[in-house]
Write a structure and sequence with these properties.
Elements lengths: L2 H10 L1 H14 L23 E4 L3 H17 L5 E5 L2 H10 L6 E5 L5 H11 L3 E5 L5 H9 L4 E6 L3 H8 L2 H9 L3 E4 L2 H10 L6 E3 L11 H13 L7 E7 L4 H14 L4 E6 L5 H10 L4 E3 L12 E3 L6 H7 L2 E4 L12 H5 L4 E3 L7 H10 L2 E3 L3 H13 L1 H17 L3 H12 L2
Parallel strand pairs: 1-2, 1-4, 2-3, 4-5, 5-6, 6-7, 8-9, 8-12, 9-11, 10-11, 12-13, 13-14
């Protein structure tokens, strides 16, 4: 498949795209809004001539935030247009940069030549920066036609994804060859990009900017104060964060096992997607757990068993409230989520076996003794209870995680240096 055939199929598939939007809007009504932006129509006014950063959803937006803040500081004369594809990503971007007038935001239009052209004619960026793996052939080609350099920041590419791209080499190779800079997390992933058609001189191993996460000391102080308000400073508290459908039942089953030995244990349960908040709350109630929703700001009482984290932008704070952290998306075949956020907060980290999106990070944490992996509810309950009962083991895991973080820092500076070479 070449780009012409890809584009034709995309146009033919627009009715399916509309149906998908409609189905998503049934669960998350925000998908029914701002549809014009997805075709580069009715877009907000954009100041031209700056930097365009694309972060597909919440996770990429959070990962991109330190880079965007550094770009704002380095290039005080340039506006930065930040795009995403999801309503939750949009909410996160607007919350992160609510007080920054040079940040412009809209949805990235669909990867159609006409929509990509309209968007670029409006934004006229000096540089395009794509986070992690969100590669769109027509957007990249339209940038190349206009002489706009395109960089991939914090790039990652699993073996499975590389095989998928490789099946469409006539589409993939020309697209990668048109890009100007690949800042890749590991050498293995860098070689996959070269094998798929990226020009070797454009590929650099910079590491993961997720290691450059810095924690505000006030965050930990606020968390300690809130636990004191709950009268829960001595209470065992654990968090299951970024859970996906099929994981909440496992987590609640593990919590029930814990309650048999620790009847005052508190679980902070944080579903990954906001459209699932109500369903997970109902699940907790059906299973008989005394549950408080974080969004209500209600006090966590002695008989509260589950705190549902149903707010946006608070995940780091919720991690800070807990003694140990299970990171979801890993008991189901989703590939896991960011293990470094709890590690940066000095929390022992637990995950399921499915970590193909974070293989290098998981391997480093595992080898350092900072990561425990479980397969089911029983294993999860056993591991959380072990950390409750053996605080020295928990402390060793926490210190090992922090050591891995410190050892890998510097990726953000290397990325910024590479982007600086592209900004004329």
């Amino acid at each position: 498949m070449n780009r012409t055939l890809y584009t034709a199929l995309f146009y033919l598939g627009l009715p399916l795209v509309a149906i998908r939007l409609w189905l998503r809007a049934r669960k998350a009504p925000a998908y029914a809004r701002r549809i014009g932006e997805r075709f580069a129509c009715g877009m907000p006014a954009l100041q031209p001539g700056g930097i365009w950063v694309h972060a597909v959803s919440v996770g990429e937006s959070i990962a991109a935030a330190p880079m965007i803040r550094a770009l704002l500081q380095r290039y005080p004369q340039l506006p930065i247009t930040v795009t995403c594809m999801t309503p939750t990503g949009s909410e996160r971007i607007q919350a992160l940069f609510a007080n920054e007038p040079r940040i412009q935001h809209c949805y990235l239009p669909y990867d159609l030549p006409c929509a990509a052209a309209r968007f670029l004619d409006r934004a006229q960026p000096k540089l395009a920066v794509i986070m992690e793996t969100e590669l769109w052939p027509n957007h990249i080609h339209q940038c190349a036609k206009r002489g706009i350099p395109v960089a991939l920041a914090n790039g990652r590419l699993s073996e499975r994804s590389a095989r998928g791209y490789g099946r469409f080499s006539k589409l993939t190779a020309p697209m990668l060859a048109e890009m100007s800079f690949f800042a890749i997390q590991t050498e293995a992933e860098a070689q996959r990009f070269r094998d798929l058609g990226a020009r070797p001189e454009t590929v650099e191993v910079t590491g993961s900017i997720k290691f450059d996460l810095t924690i505000d000391a006030q965050l930990l102080q606020r968390a300690h104060a809130l636990r004191g308000q709950w009268q829960a400073l001595e209470r065992p508290v654990w968090i299951a964060a970024s859970t996906h459908e099929g994981e909440d039942e496992v987590v609640l089953s593990a919590h029930r096992r814990l309650l048999a030995n620790y009847p005052n244990a508190l679980l902070i349960l944080v579903p990954r997607h906001p459209e699932r908040f109500n369903a997970v709350f109902e699940l907790c109630q059906r299973e008989g757990f005394a549950t408080v929703r974080r969004s209500t700001a209600a006090n966590v009482a002695a008989d509260t068993s589950v705190l549902l984290g149903d707010t946006m932008g608070e995940l780091l704070f919720l991690y800070a409230l807990a003694d140990s952290a299970f990171v979801g998306g890993s008991l189901v075949a989703n590939g896991g989520h960011n293990l470094l956020e709890p590690a940066a907060l000095a929390k022992p980290v637990i995950s399921g076996p499915h970590l193909f999106n974070f293989l290098d990070i998981a391997a480093q944490l595992r080898e350092a003794g900072a990561l425990a992996e479980v397969d089911d509810a029983e294993g999860l309950a056993v591991e959380v209870q072990r950390l409750f009962e053996l605080p020295r083991d928990a402390q060793r895991m926490a210190e090992a995680g922090l050591a891995v973080m410190r050892r890998n820092q510097g990726a953000l500076q290397r990325l910024l240096d590479g982007l600086g070479r592209l900004i004329k």
